[in-house]
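cache lookup: miss for this entity combination. No prior model stored, computing from scratch. Input as submitted by user K.M.:
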Amino acid sequence: MAEGKERAAEILRGPEGERIWLTLVDYSVKYARRFGWRSDKTLPKGFSPEEIAKDVLIKVLEGKRVWDEAKEPILLNALKGMVQSDLSHLFDDYEGTHIEPTDRDLPDGPQLTADSFPGQGLNPEEETLQSERNRLEATALDLIRAEVEGNLELESVFLALYDSDKPKEIARLTGICAERVYSLCRELERIAAKITPSRVAREAKERRKHE
Amino acid sequence: MSDVNKKVRETTQFLDNLTKLITDDRRETSEIVESLRAQGIDPTESIKEFHRLLSEHSPTWQEKAARARAAVVTLFTSRTAKARKSRAEIVAEIRRVIDSMRDLGSPVEAGAYHRKFEGARDEDLESLLEDLSFQRDLLLKQRGPEKSDA
């Protein structure tokens, strides 16, 4: 059986290769925006979503990142997972989840700080970060809501999105035929594209002034 | 769970669901292409880049063979181009280098080199030219700091 990198190259050279690539780039663009909606950041170090996808592709082809077909039989899903992981790493998630403990050893035993009691919840720094993320996400949601207001079908899909991410399930929840739901999804896609992270950050800042 | 936490969780869920919905794999390729264009990405260029990356980072044996062939052709062409430089041109160039070395105050034995020209093969002349050029560059470098000292 071909090694992961060879098998990946074989699939990518096949009839589905270009579609896999375009889907991956599109995924990277949209998830970069999703991360941006909560972090008030653009991709650092001049990275673009397309470059994240390229980097993942190169590493898989060179075997620096391993696609284990037995664990994830669909190559696109494996690549998406890697893109999402890299995006998450590049945005502030790493900072938020890898805070160094401040405990240290004293002659009479370890000094205990708030970090010694993980059950107590987030430390103040994490709380501030979390609260800022919540504020940005709420602003993004409000901006999307404002765009769908007045369009009854879009409003229904908007509400159904709290419960599902599947077009068929949304059709069932809203009573709108599946075909129409697909077309409304495209409309939502155009709306989401307009809600850029920088626009969300600006709006959140503006709202804070009026609080 | 408090109302605030519930709202936060629902907001996150909504944004996640929306992103998942608009990245659905079952979309037509034409829709993905359209979506990329709307995000400022040229799908045609992106596909070209994809094939370039595939070829560069995971070449097929045909691509490897083509690359090796191209390398040989390049080598052959450059050697041929070098060989095509006429003997007279090489000799003229050697003389120019010798003259500039003399100007720099280096005692170059023109006669000795002249004898060498007579009996040397083209390849030897090329090698001589390389040596002399190297020595002249060295002299130029040495002269640089001396001039500034003066």
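stored under new cache key. The helical segments of chain B are 3-22, 29-38, 43-57, 61-84, 87-103, 110-119, 122-149.
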